[in-house]
Every structure is written in C-alpha cells, then in structure tokens.
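Minutes, methods subgroup
Present: GH (chair), OT, SY

1. OT presented the first of two proteins processed in the latest run. Sequence and structure tokens recorded below as shown on screen.
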Amino acid sequence: MYYKLKNEVLLRGWEQLPHCVYIKTINNICILNKIYFNILLLCDGKTDVDSLYILDNQRKIIKNFEKLGIIEQCEKNDTITEKQKYKLYPCRYIKQAHWSITGKCNYLCKHCYLSAPGAKFGELSHEVCMDIIDQLAECGIMNVSLTGGEPLVRNDFMEIVDALLSKDININQIYSNGALVNENLLNELEKRGIKPQFSISFDGIGWHDWLRGIDGAEEKAINAFKLLKKHGFSIDVEMCLHKNNMHTLEDTVNLLSELGVESLKTNPVQETGDWTNENGKYNLTTEELYDIYLDYIPKFLRAGSPLNLHLGGFFLCNKGKKDYIIPSVRFDNTEKTCSHALCGHARNVMYIAPDGQLLPCIPLAGHNINGKKTFVTDMPLREALSHSDYLSIIETKISTLFEKNKKCSSCEYKYQCGGGCRAQALLYSNDYFGCDNAACTIFHNGYIDKIREAVSKAL
C-alpha cells in the first residue's frame, strides 16, 4: 500500500522549527516532532507501507495522518510534486509580511503615520520591490498584506501582485482608502483567482471627509464597499475616533453592516503626522474613549452584534454572538506570561516600511527603537530573520520588560496584561519598554468589571 501527501500539503522547515507541514487550504503550518515528520516522509508514493521494514506503530501513525486529511492512498510511483518536497528555509519563521509598497497617497489624512502625501518615505523602485519579493520567497514567507500610503497609486501594483503570486505567496489583504477601488481592479484580481480582503478606513458618518482631507472621501468609501460586496470580496474597516465623530459610532456600525462590511476595529486618533498640529484639540482622553465604548456595548449586543467588532484593546465580539473577550487581558495570570514574546503579533507578522525598514508594526514607523534600525535594502532578509537588531526586538520576552520597567514588574495585573502594547508605550513615554497607559487604565480603573456590567445590561 502506498501513500502520498495531499496536493495542498507542503513539507517545510525553518530555523528552530525544522519539521513542519504547510496546509494551503487553512493557510497555516503544523509543527511536528522529528519522529512524526520522518514517518510523513515515507508518504512519497514510492514507499510500500506494508513492507516488513515499516513498524506497526508507524503504520498506525500513517493511518492517523490519513484520518486528518494530510495524506491519501495512491498508486505506486504516484509521487508528490516538486513544490511539496521538503524545503528548509535559512531563517526564523515569520507567518506574514505587512508591506507598505509606497509612502505616497492621494489623500491628505490629518493623522497619517507616514505623513503622506508629503511622502517623506517615498517608495522603493520596481526593481527593489521585485528583489524583496524574491527574498520573501527565499525566507518561506507565504502571506503578504499590501498597504501604503495608498498601495493602489503605484503604477506597477498589478506587477507586484503577479510577482507575489508567481512565488506562491498569498495576498490575503489590501489596505486602501477606497478611492481607486473599481471594476477593473477587482476584475484583474478575479482573473488571477484571488479575492484578498480589503481593509478600508471609514471615520464616521459625516466626518470621514474631514479626517481624510478630501471632499467626497466618504462617498468614495461607500461606493467601494458596494462594489466589493457586489464582487464577493470580504471587507474590513478601521475607524479613528475623536471628539468630533465619537457620537457617530452606533450609526456608523449600522451603516457598515448594511453595506456588507464584515468587521470593524476602532481606535482613537493618535498623536502622529499632522494631527500633532491640532495640539490635542480633538483628542479623547482614555477615560472618555472607554466610556463611549461602555455606552455602546449593550446597544451593539441588543442589535444582534451586526458585525465583528473590536473596540481597540477593550472589547471584541463576533457577528451574531454574545460571547466576548477583553483583548487587553492577554495571558492566563501565571508566571508563564514571562516566557511569551513582548508582542506576539510582531513575532508572527513582519512590517516592511516604504523605505525598506523592518519594524514590529506600522504605528512604529518613524520611531527609532532604542537606536536600532534594520533595512531589508541593506541586509538580506534571511540574515535579518536569523540575527539582527530587528530579530532581537521581536524576540524580546516579557521577562525583559519586567526587568527594565519596575512599574510593570510590581503591578498586580502583570501576568494578565504582559505590559500591553509597545506602540502605545512609545506614544505615551517615548520608551519601547515604557508603560501602555491605555492598558493600565483598563486594569487599574475597574474597566474589566465595567465591561462585564455593560454586557449584562444586554443579556
């Protein structure tokens, strides 16, 4: 009897994770121990598993792989493809690259991290982008989300898409303001057999134009939602809250739900870009923001949870559900918290800035994290993901934060919070190892209980 890997299963490995299978249908890797991995290598269409050389316990494991849908019976010499054969990548594992392919933009957003459209970052040349794609493939990065600036302003956008697809790199998300989302773009994506999720900003009914600095921006976003829905693309929205639009949250959620938006994430406008020129005039305090959230939570639940909602770090609930989580409660309140990466997201998702700098996330664009900078244009990506300042940053453990931050280390909530968000810490204290005051407020000002009370009002 002969077995082979199913077509969607690839054998892969990385430094410190040498024995993995990548399953394309779920777009994820499964980590195996060496014994199980070596047994899987026997499923090559050439090895007779009824042979005397195969032990009974090995056959049992093979049967279990078959039940799990990883392998299937086949004829002799019906072998796996070249792409399925084992490949060991010369670096650490990164699940996804979040790539700003340009710093340029067709909008004048007051709060842009990259200060577009002045585009102090500009954009890398077509040739450099092609080289980055080759490096992503060389490092076994199988997922990319494209952002900017506004990624659709690049004349070679579809060439970048084609180059990624030619390397079997999945494009799972495109971030856009929606102005350039049109029939031709969606038709071109569909011709290539892909339907990435679109993440489009929408900053409240009647206030979107004001924050985005362009008349008609709201109408263009709504038109993009309708067009995407018509073509069957998934839509995600991010909304920035401030004193002018805070009253629009409920109506905005209802509108987005009607337009077919699947999920919404809210955050306050941060002190970045030209927003700093407003001198705090429109800023919400953390307490004001959380009180807006508390007021809205029961309304959201009573409305049947019309979409997936993430009130940044405060409350998360999926469409049609009443179960919820509090994202700032990140860990199980045990000492095991210390062994986790300081930012789990950054350990799995690499951000490439428009100038080629590697950063833990896009809000850190323009920050000098402890004087350390790594550029993919200066250092091969395989090296950056093996030994570099960037790798040391994203591999930093929470225990290191506790060593450097005495306030966090002495906090009674430290094993639940884990120090909070590093981008928020930099914003508040200009220190990568500083305190995330937004998370501190949730824990120290009784908001955990207040969230529970708000939920109970709707149940």
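2. SY then presented the second protein from the same run.
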Amino acid sequence: MKNINKYQLEDFVQDLHFRKWVLGTLSEENHFWEDWLADHPEKKTVVEEARSLVVASEIEEISIPEAKIKEGIENILLQTSSARTRWYQLTWVRVAASVTVLLAMALILGRKEIKTAISDEKPVLSQSTETENNGKEPLSLKLSDGTVVTLKTGSKLQVARDFGRLTRTVNLTGEAFFEVQKDPQHPFLVYAGGVVTKVLGTSFNIRAYHQEASTSVAVRTGQVTVYQQEKADVKNNHHPEQILLTPNQKAVFEKERGKLVKTLVEKPVILSVIPENKNFDFNETPIPVVFTQLQQAYGVKIVFDSELLDKCNLTATFGNEPLYDKIDIICETIQARYEIADGQIVIYARGCK
C-alpha cells in the first residue's frame, strides 16, 4: 500500500478513494481526507490541483483517439529525463488514463465548455457536505465564511465544497435562519423550495418543506432578492418576478400556481426606537404623525392620505402589542380599515370632521 504522505499529483488523481471524496460519493461519516488534509496543510496546493483534474474528468465525456493519447504520452516523456523514468515505471493503462484526463481538461478549456460547479441557474451540489438536523432542538452551524445558520428540526442543508470561491451557494430543505457574513465579492445564494434567495450580507429566515404548499422568505435585517429558480435566465441576467425584500417583509412562493408574491411577516419586529416617543405614548396626536412614527419604528411603509387624516387624532399608549394590533386599534378609532399589499400596509379611511 502506498504512503499517502508521499503522494504526488498523479497519485491523488488515480486514487479511487480520493476520487470518491472529491465527487462527494463517500458516506457522510467518512471524513478521512478532511482530517488528513488538516494534518498535512503543506499538501493543500497539490490536493487542489488533483481535485481540479478529477472534476474536469467528470464534466463531460470526450472521445480522444488512441493516436492522440499516444502522441500526448510521447510529448510528456520527451520533456525531461526524470519524467521519462517516472512515467515508464507506470503501466501503459495508467499512463493513458492520466493523459486522457489532462488532454480532456485541455480540450474542454480550449472550447470553453467547462461548466461552473455552482451557477445562478442550477446549482450542482454533488460535491457538497450535507448536514441534517434530526434532533429536537435547532442546530447552529458556522460556515467557512463566518455565516451562521440555525437549522430547524427536520431540516437539511447542503454546502458546496467550493463554497466561497466564486459564489457562496447552499441548498436548503426545511427551515433555517441565516445570518450571512457580508462579502460584496461573493453573493450568498440559497436554493430552497423552487426559489433562489440572493444576498450579500443580511439575516433572514427561509421555510421550504417539501410537503407544504408554499415556500417563504422573511427578512430580519438588510435586503435580499428572491426569484423563481426555474424561470431564471442567467445568460441574459434576467430574473422574472424578482422581488426585493427589506426588514419585516416576506416573499411567498405558491408552488402549485407558480406565483411569487410580496407581503409582510406575521409579527413585524421593532427595528429602531423613536427617541421622541419610545413608549408610543400618544395624546391627541394627529394620525399622520402616529403612522409616520410606526413606519419609522418597524421599517414598514404605511400608505395613507395625509390630507384626509389630518384632522384625525389619537389618544393611546401602546406597549408590546404586535404591529397589526396597533393598526387595528387606530383603524377602529378613526373608522378605517387596512390591507397588506406588496409588502405595505394600505389604510382606507373617510377622514374626520
């Protein structure tokens, strides 16, 4: 048996166990290569080169004539005398296999047909690590970029092995809360339940269970964009029905109808305290002022006719009531009603005399 510590590039490429690890076909419990690499950081460069060759050989099958293979072998043998000795020690089958991989990679690069392992249109996560939470409590995970993911019970997260190189891409089944580390150079993409959530750095929750009729994305801080995965046209950078979400807003994807709508979260949270009225204490306060202060506190746009409501006043002290309860009380006071549309609260009122 060969000493792995003395492996060179071709040794890694030809090692079946190593190839299975690169291609993600080993069992989840098998962490041999991760542990070995952690103990031998000096091998990182050659391992990455070997990984690239293995991936390239799996990208697409290319038919290479036997004469071309023989020509490639002869060129390699002629380069250096040491190379001649090294290669002649190998069997012709092994030489042919190695050169096939190298030629395949060169031909693919020449024709620019290498497919990106992680794309905005369809993530290929066969080379990924997978974590499933089968416990009774949420599971906290910290990704290599510093992002923290709280994985809910019965949920699964797949993280691409090349996470962070071009993009930061993950697949989610179930529910999780993300606190994404900001990195403008590497967008963070979450594929879940038929939609793609794209961010640079923010916090949000995604619920995407297979058995449920809808997928939802709710934003806590920052901004995210959400669009349907199957309708994305990456080549033209076009994402139909792309939705921009801000704090306390939510996108809901209705799977059966294929419809993506923008609304508000069930329980909007206070994002900032209004210094002049941190207790929401109103005394004959004009309704436009009340709505403006609530809008600033929750970051939720409240659409109303300021001129129509200018003579309406409110005397009330709010505590920890949910935002919708506050709106209910105000609307009852001025005989108005409200609706939630496109992530906003729209007030319908007759005014006050």
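Chair's summary of item 2: The longest helix spans residues 92-111.
Next meeting: continue with the remaining queue.
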